[in-house]
Amino acid sequence: MARSIKKGPFVDGHLMSKVEAAQAAKDKRPIKTWSRRSTVLPDFVGLTIAVHNGKQHIPVYVTENMVGHKLGEFALTRTFKGHSADKKVAAPAAGGAPAAAPAGGKK
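^ that's the sequence the OP posted. Answer follows.
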């Protein structure tokens, strides 16, 4: 369920104070945060925010298209290694000899 318009977008207070300090000092260093639930505001545009994904901080450069989204959307928490079936199919093709087209294919 969406947040009410009356309340406005949610941003953690400690993150907002860091953003305001970085803008006042024209500082381009990444702002480290664990607040994945905070909404990206127009004030964040042009800053680099290092969002924690559970293991490390992922640097995210904020652009205008990100406004309104949550910070956690841009720091993925899971690493996709691939399906096991893909490895079986890719192994013969990597053997060096080109794979022959199947006989009796459609025209």
